[in-house]
Write a structure and sequence with these properties.
Elements: H1 5-71, H2 75-81, H3 84-96, E1 104-109, E2 114-119, E3 126-127, H4 140-147, E4 154-159, E5 166-174, E6 180-189, H5 206-211, E7 218-224, E8 227-238, E9 241-251, H6 253-303, H7 307-313, H8 316-356, H9 365-379, H10 384-396, H11 406-409, H12 417-434, H13 444-449, H14 470-485, H15 496-505, H16 513-521, H17 523-532
Antiparallel strand pairs: 1-2, 1-6, 2-3, 4-5, 5-6, 7-8, 8-9
Helix pairs in contact: 1-6, 1-8, 6-7, 6-8, 9-10, 9-14, 9-16, 9-17, 10-14, 14-15
């Protein structure tokens, strides 16, 4: 069934409007969600740093308590002589002065047996029953301290025995002559310092453990009981020894909800704008095409000989009016169609410029490539129609990069084999995006084939020589030239002289020699255009360089 003219005008514009709206909504939603996620991750990381500072302060406080216990005057003599009453009087003040935690203090003899036990409580220090206890005699860290191996006087270790894990700080007790007569242990349960606000704390699985290093924290997300959580895992080290992993977890429901709300708002705004645009467009198209439709219907009635039907369709005055204004309406319709095509192209060009701007080092790249391409086309005396197709192809040649991830597109170093394959897909993606627009057909070869080479080693089709369309050969030279003179995160841009020499060296391999010759001939004009676009500094062109 043939569609009325009004729908032929409206449908392509509708498709483009939906396409741009969906892409714009998706990109905006992704950017806003990424910003909120970065803020959430920063808060988690800040909490993790605070937790590490808490553990560092805990270590410093307990080590200070240990020094007070081992260095108190009279402790070595009382421990060496087995005077437990004196030892109790000397060490009890140490636990009494600890107001910020509940600690356990043990005195060990030279064989590692507990001879004294004191526990701090809110009501004050109290004794621990240590009758017959040798809980720490076989502990490797205690053995090292009592033996004085390698000058290790004070060490820390973790024990998981008992109702909860406990960290112990231990130090040897020496006489004035340097003889070790025993040791002191100060233990603090982890529950006194580390607590959880969730019923099921996060667990570091095997993948997370392999990724964690002493200098690298690892994030992990999970959904549990209908809620979303974000966590950051890091190593827990004290005195150079790793005791385990430290995890900070936060509820991420608000982040998921915020992303959904932003997506909903953008969708509603786009839908309202699209409906309003389509309503206005439909009314305008109907008004513009109604006289033409009346004329067609009248001409069909007359040609069929049904004068009565003709009279019911339009009066004699209407037929006369339509006949007189047919040429005017035809010209007006052509103008409207051209204006619609230009508006459509402007929308697509704006999207292409936005894609260029994703990477600051490529901002304005497509506009410069278009300007250089036109100068080469002038030097080769290309027709006006070819120049317009070349200009549009140059402005849109990288639009397919919308389908390339930021981590690949903005990577500062060399790409891996997989990343190169991902980047090469941008040519085909751009072609697939634009192939449904009839007025862009002459420009599509530039979008699809601008990375082909004269020696047939390019992509995506491996075209070579004269099989590459002339407009594409020109675009390829302009594209590489602008890339060479532009700064990149991993290198400084070349001078115009150096870039021109590089283009000349690739004539017959990467580029069409005739196009390279035209490029060198019009290089002064190219430099003038680029100076107006504020991309290069003036240079002196010598006859030899030209």
């Amino acid at each position: 069934m043939r569609l009325p003219i009004r729908y032929r005008i409206i449908i392509p514009f509708t498709v483009l409007l939906v396409f741009v709206g969906v892409i714009g909504t998706g990109v905006a939603s992704a950017r806003l969600a990424s910003a909120a996620s970065a803020q959430f991750d920063a808060a988690l990381l800040h909490s993790s740093l605070q937790a590490h500072q808490l553990l560092s302060q805990l270590d410093a406080n307990r080590m200070a308590d240990l020094r007070r216990a081992t260095d108190t005057v009279g402790v070595p003599e009382a421990l060496g002589a087995g005077d437990l009453a004196m030892l109790d009087r000397l060490l009890t003040p140490v636990t009494a002065n600890v107001a910020d935690a509940s600690i356990q203090l043990y005195g060990l003899d030279a064989q590692g047996s507990e001879v004294l036990g004191i526990k701090s409580t809110p009501k004050g220090p109290t004794s621990i029953d240590i009758s017959g206890a040798r809980a720490f005699a076989a502990e490797p860290t205690v053995v090292k301290v009592l033996a004085g191996v390698g000058g290790t006087d004070r060490l820390v270790f973790l024990r998981n025995q008992g109702p909860e894990p406990t960290v112990y700080w231990t130090g040897s007790v020496r006489t004035a002559g340097g003889r070790i007569v025993g040791a002191v242990l100060i233990g603090e349960p982890l529950g006194a310092q580390l607590v959880t606000t969730v019923r099921t704390p996060p667990v570091a699985n095997q993948t997370v453990r392999k990724a964690i290093t002493s200098d690298n924290a690892v994030g992990a997300d999970e959904a549990r009981s209908g809620h979303s959580y974000g966590a950051v895992f890091s190593t827990w080290t004290m005195r150079g020894s790793q005791f385990g992993f430290l995890a900070m977890q936060a509820n991420a429901d608000w982040l998921v909800s915020a992303a959904a709300q932003v997506r909903l708002i953008l969708t509603l705004v786009f839908t309202a704008a699209a409906l309003l645009t389509l309503l206005v467009g439909t009314a305008t198209a109907s008004r513009l095409t109604r006289p033409i439709e009346l004329l067609v219907r009248s001409m069909r009635a007359v040609s069929a000989g049904d004068l009565q039907q003709r009279a019911t369709i339009a009066s004699t005055d209407e037929i006369g009016y339509l006949a007189r204004t047919f040429n005017e309406m035809t010209a007006s319709l052509e103008e409207k169609t051209a204006a619609l095509e230009e508006t459509t192209f402007a929308s697509i060009e704006a999207l292409a410029r936005a894609i260029d701007a994703r990477d600051p080092s490529t901002f304005g790249h497509s506009a410069r490539v278009a300007a250089v391409s036109l100068e080469i086309a002038d030097a080769m005396q290309l027709p006006t129609a070819d120049r317009e197709a070349l200009r549009r192809g140059a402005l849109l040649h990288d639009i397919g990069k919308i389908g390339v991830e930021d981590k690949v597109l903005r990577k500062p170093g060399p790409l891996t084999a997989w990343e190169r394959d991902e980047m090469r897909e941008h040519a085909r993606i751009g072609y697939d995006m634009l192939k449904g627009l009839p007025f862009l057909q002459p420009s599509l070869p530039g979008v699809l084939h601008h990375h082909e080479r004269w020696d047939a080693t390019g992509y995506p089709a491996g075209l070579g020589g004269a099989a590459i369309p002339m407009l594409v050969r020109i675009l390829a030279v302009a594209d590489v030239f602008d890339a060479l003179i532009s700064d990149r995160p991993y290198r400084q841009g070349l001078s115009v002289e150096a870039a021109s020499a590089a283009i000349w060296n690739e004539a017959g391999r990467q580029f069409d020699p005739d196009v390279v010759t035209a490029f060198l001939a019009c290089r002064p004009a190219i430099e003038a255009v680029l100076r107006n676009m504020r991309t290069v500094e003036p240079t002196i062109v010598t006859p030899e360089a030209a």
